[in-house]
Design brief:
Strand content: 15-25%
Number of domains: 3
Bound molecules: S-adenosylmethionine
Oligomer: single chain
Largest sheet: 7 strands, mixed
CATH topology of the largest domain: Rossmann fold
Length: 344
């Protein structure tokens, strides 16, 4: 890819009703690599690139936003995908195929949605921004395989939405098993989304997310005995097999975020394959209590559950040192410890 900065457009030429200069929409050889959220201080840098394969690339994305006079909103984490290859790879990571049912969080202009629909999937999309909802609703009006809801995903009772959809799907196709999630997420809701979706192994088989790169690494490859090792790592491994697929440099988004992203696949375990604990509620309550006193030994931080000598004894029975701290325990260690304490 040859990269040459060809011009700089002063952002004063942007306005809420005409956010992108028409030259961006019309020139086939210009590629937007950088733009800040502040219209007063920002410049847009245009760079020549030699690749523009799919119709749903940077032109389509910018044209689509321009057609609505939309300027990306930082509060909604609106960083739109400009590289259609990445959308293809997100769909491939979930092995999306004809007949699949896919939930997409935050369709934006619909560039990823289009890939999913072209693969033959039925898509339920949920976006908080009513303007983006109108945009994709119009864009895919001709498709009977697309539905969009205007809701805040974190508050939208996704479990009941999905259960009623799966029920009616299974009536028409008794072999239909599980749905998938594929999404370029706003970074600010990614932890909430992971906590919400991963325990839904009875509904979804795969959750493929585009996350902030550092957050992706912390979720998938946390090292024991580091400050990055947290209860969410226990949750991720309890409910799924996570895989870090590949890094996505920040230049692929408009506007360009300050950080790189990464594609992560969570292959969800079916509930029958969860680690064997008597109660997931009491298991995660123990894990959270243990990490509340992160620097403390478990015999101190779990004192509200049992006395110090009893916790020491349980650690011993679980084959763990009596001086254990939470960041030293794997998922398997926590399961053993929980089950010993629950038996007593
Ligand atoms: C990072 S953009 C991605 C857009 C599009 N998928 C793409 O790849 O270009 C995030 C999208 O999520 C939407 N969004 C932000 N917060 C949301 C929330 N709480 N619930 C649902 N959608 C949300 C934004 O409006 C935006 O369309």
């Amino acid at each position: 890819m040859s990269v040459v900065i060809t011009s700089t457009i002063n952002s004063k030429s942007l306005s809420p009703t005409r956010p992108f200069p028409s030259c961006i929409n019309n020139s086939p050889s210009l590629f937007l690599i950088s733009a800040s959220f502040s219209r007063r201080s920002s410049n847009i840098f245009l760079t020549k690139v030699s690749c523009a394969k799919s119709p749903d690339d940077y032109h389509a994305t910018l044209k689509s936003l321009n057609s609505r006079g939309r300027f990306p909103r930082k509060s909604l984490g609106q960083h739109y995908m400009l590289n259609s290859d990445i959308n293809d790879q997100l769909a491939a990571a979930a092995n999306v195929k004809e007949g699949d049912f896919v939930l997409e969080i935050g369709p934006g202009t619909g560039s990823l949605t289009n890939v999913l629909l072209n693969l033959g999937a039925t898509v339920l999309a949920i976006d908080k921004d009513p303007h983006m909802v109108d945009l994709v609703r119009e864009r895919f009006a001709g498709s009977d395989k697309f539905k969009v809801l205007q809701e805040d995903f974190v508050k939208c009772h996704i479990r009941s939405h999905m259960l009623s959809i799966l029920e009616s799907r299974r009536l028409s196709d008794p072999d239909f098993a599980l749905a998938k999630v594929v999404s370029n997420l706003p970074f600010n809701i990614s932890t909430d989304v992971v906590k919400l979706l991963l325990p839904m192994g009875d509904i979804f088989s795969h959750v493929v997310l585009l996350l902030q790169d550092e957050a992706a690494l912390r979720l998938v490859e946390p090292a024991l005995r580091t400050s990055e090792y947290r209860p969410i790592n226990i949750l991720v491994n309890f409910y799924s097999e996570p895989e870090y697929n590949f890094r996505v440099p920040r230049e692929n988004f408009f506007p360009q975020p300050k950080v790189d992203a990464a594609v992560v696949t969570f292959k969800l375990k079916h509930p029958r394959d969860y680690p064997d604990v008597s109660s997931t509620k009491s298991f995660f309550s123990l894990v959270n209590s243990a990490f509340n006193g992160k620097r403390k030994m478990l015999r101190k931080s779990l004192q509200h559950i049992s006395s110090s000598p009893e916790i020491e004894k349980a650690l011993g029975v679980a084959g763990l040192p009596v001086t254990s701290r939470p960041e030293e325990l794997t998922l398997g260690d926590f399961v053993k410890l929980h089950n010993v304490i629950a038996r007593e």
